[in-house]
# Entry
Amino acid sequence: MGRFRGPFPHLETRVPQLSPPTPTADRQRSQFFSTFAAITAIVVFLLATATIVAVSAKTNTTTSTTSGPIEVTLTEFAMTPAALTASAGDVKITVHNKGSMVHNFSVPALSKKTADIAAGQSVTLDLGQVSAGSYPFLCEIPGHADSGMKGTLTVGAAGSSSDAAMAGMDMSGGTTDPNDPAALKAESDKMQASFAAFPAKTEGTGNQPLTPTIAADGTKVFELTAAITDWEVSPGKIVKAWTYNGMVPGPWIKVNVGDKVQVNVTNNLPGAGTDVHFHGIQAGFAADGVAPISQDIIPGDGGKFTYTFLADHAQVGMYHAHNMGEMAVPNGMFGAFEVGDMPLPTGRTVSGIAIPKDLKITQEIPMVLNDAGVIGLSLNGKAFPATAPVVTNVGDWIEVQYYNEGLAIHPMHLHEFPGIVIAKDGLPLDSPYAMDTQVIAPGERYTVLYHTTEVGTWVWHCHILNHVEGPDGMLGMVTAIVVK
Ligand SMILES: [Cu+2]
# Structure
């Protein structure tokens, strides 16, 4: 029985159930790579070691206001984090230019600025004794601040983290004076008022199904173009996102088990090379998308590369940039990639929840989590109140694919309805389980069924509370399921 998947009318013919992966010509071919793989493993180990050293050096970028300089990273066109905090006193800022152009870092109110910093270079700027206050900073190269290279240094209260992954988060645990009822009422009113804007209309929708062209031999051919494009994350907040086909998340790609797949990538990023890794899809070495190991980098400004593989069993994967992943992915270069459907536990009872024998899924919803870069705390590329609600009819069963493309874990919680987790990372569970809060770590995917049995508007959100609320009201990773 075919499952109706609203946005995928062109994929209506379903391969009914998962069959165990069988060896294919494609897989057997990969045996020939075994010797090469051994050499590769050594290279990977060396690279990994280098990465660990680099990463541990980087962990110190979380702002420490009492010792050592604050760190800020310049790219085209962002200052990350855009909100820096420090305690009053001697403030030093280490500025890393991780972009491909020359940038500088200026704090006009303090008459302090760096010299121009070449791509790849770092400079530490001593701001001297700084008193409490708010100090805008920017790159003074013409046009760069207007494109997003600006931010604010807040000096005053005891310092809090300004790690990129926490951009926009309120880490204060409440700044309003608990002995000031008027201030508390004002904050409470702001919180209540923030609901009114939901769901806000913004420009652009991510996850749009990508329709392939069909080659003479039946191969499904998809076109992906990487570029830096404007993206409206929340009303009026337009960022320079790193996108596939101009949207965040990139287009939703879904193929059937047995399809031959070709993905043609054009890299229109300025300067930056890229590659595309099909995370969780066993696409074979040649399509692993890890430059310089499995392929040459796809150069920016128009480089092209073609990935081909056989989609030989059901999988829930995602695609994203591997090169410069820590910048490219949070900034928007990610998307959902599915092969077939996860098998449904029809006719079974899971934690007391009976799943009908003739279960019909009325909607499949990709739910892509992010928390960093220019996109920040978001669901499917949008931050509350621009997050899209899911509308169902009472009695519907829906299937949600959670994907975490961010840098932090997110416990996703839907009010009222328990979820039944039927697959983890595209691997069907032998024992599906029920939950109402599912932690999703970076890189993970969970396939979850929800039976929406009660009319209402049910809030659906990350349960790390500063991912969803700040002093000005609701933000980030909140949406709702509206049951009619
Ligand atoms: Cu979260």
Summary: The two ends are 25 Å apart (CA to CA). Helices lie at 25-31, 34-58, 181-194, 325-328. The pocket of copper (II) ion is lined by residues 410, 462, 464, 467, 477 (CB under 6 Å). Residues 63-162 form a domain with the Immunoglobulin-like fold (CATH 2.60.40.420).
